[in-house]
C-alpha cells in the first residue's frame, strides 16, 4: 500500500487540468496522481493521455457529482491517505509533507486541510475553506479567515495547527480506511457541504479534524458553480438542513430545526432583495426538497452516531454576530 494518493475529480475541466495539473505532478513527487473523470464530454481525456502520461486516469461511465464521483473512483485507489483535490487548485512546493507528518503524529485526526488562499488575490483567504471550517449552533458554516462573503487578508494571524470542525473539500487530506468506514461523502448531496457532513461524522465517531497552515494552496473557486449561482444557493440551503437532520443531537434538533427554518425564510427575503428573486426562490425550492427527503435522512442518523459534544463547534449564532453585531473577522467572534 502506498502512503498517499492525490485524487482530482474532473468534469469538463480541460482548461483547469492544463493550467494546474503540471504543478501537482511536479510538487507531488513520490505520490500517485490520479484523475477521476466524471464522464467528461470535452477534450480532458485526450489532454491527459498526450500531456500527462504519468497521471493515472479512472473513467466513470456517468457524472456522479462530487460525492458520488469520489466515492466510486476512490474504490480503485490503494493508499493510507488520499487527498481530494479540486482541479482549480494551484499547489505550492511543500503542500503535502506538513499535513502528512501532522496526521502521522496524531492518529486521531481523520481529516486535515492546508491553508487555502485565493488564487486571484493571493494575499487573502479563499472562500471554500480558508484556514479551517466551523459551524455555529444552527449549523451555518464559516471559516478562520472567512465570514460569509467577507474574506480576510492573510497576515499570519491563523498560522497555528488547530482543531477545526470541518476541512475543505477543495483540498481534503483524509485516511482512506476511515473515509469508507464512515460512509464516504453523502451521495444525496451531489455537491456542496458534503465535506462538512463527512467531518461531522468523523467527530461523532470519536475522531478529530484539523488544519495545518504550514502547507499552502491557492484556489480559484467556483469551478463547479460560481458563488452567485442560484443552483449553489439551492444546494447549500438544502444540504445545510439535511446535515442537521443527520448529525445533530435529538434533544437539540427539536428546537434548532424550527429556528433554522425561520432564519432561512428571512434569508430568502434578504437574498431576493440583494441578489435577486431567483435566489430567494432557490431557498424555497431547497426547503421543498428537504421536506420531501426528510425521512431518508432521518434513517441515515443511525450511521452517523449523533449526540457527541464537539469542542470545536461555535456555540453562538454567527449570523447574529456578523449582521447585527458587525463582527467581520473570525477572531472578533471570540472577543
Q: What does this molecule look like?
A:
Strands 1, 2, 3, 4, 5, 6, 7, 12, 13 and 14 form a 10-stranded mixed β-sheet that branches. Strands 8-9 form a two-stranded antiparallel ribbon. It has 335 residues and is of the alpha/beta class. The longest helix is centred in the last third of the chain and has 25 residues, at 250-274. Helix 6 (194-204) runs parallel beside helix 7, helix 7 runs antiparallel to helix 8 (250-274) and helix 7 (230-247) runs parallel beside helix 9 (277-299). The chain is built from 11 helices and 14 strands.
Give the number of helices: 11
> Main sheet, how many strands, which sense, barrel?
10 strands, mixed
Count of structural domains: 2
CATH class term of the largest domain: Alpha Beta
Query: How confident is the prediction overall: mean pLDDT?
Result: 93
Summarize the structure.
The chain is of the alpha/beta class and 335 residues long.
Summarize the topology.
Blueprint (H helix, E strand, L loop, with lengths): L1 E9 L3 H13 L5 E6 L6 H8 L4 E4 L5 H9 L5 E7 L3 E3 L5 H9 L3 E10 L2 E5 L7 E3 L5 E3 L2 E2 L2 E2 L10 E2 L7 E5 H6 L12 H11 L3 E12 L10 H18 L2 H25 L2 H23 L1 H4 L13 H7 L11
Parallel strand pairs: 1-2, 1-4, 2-3, 6-14
Antiparallel strand pairs: 4-13, 5-14, 6-7, 6-13, 8-9, 10-11, 12-14
Helix pairs in contact: 1-2, 6-7, 7-8, 7-9, 8-9
Brief descriptors of the model:
2 domains, alpha/beta, 14 strands, two-stranded antiparallel ribbon, 335 residues
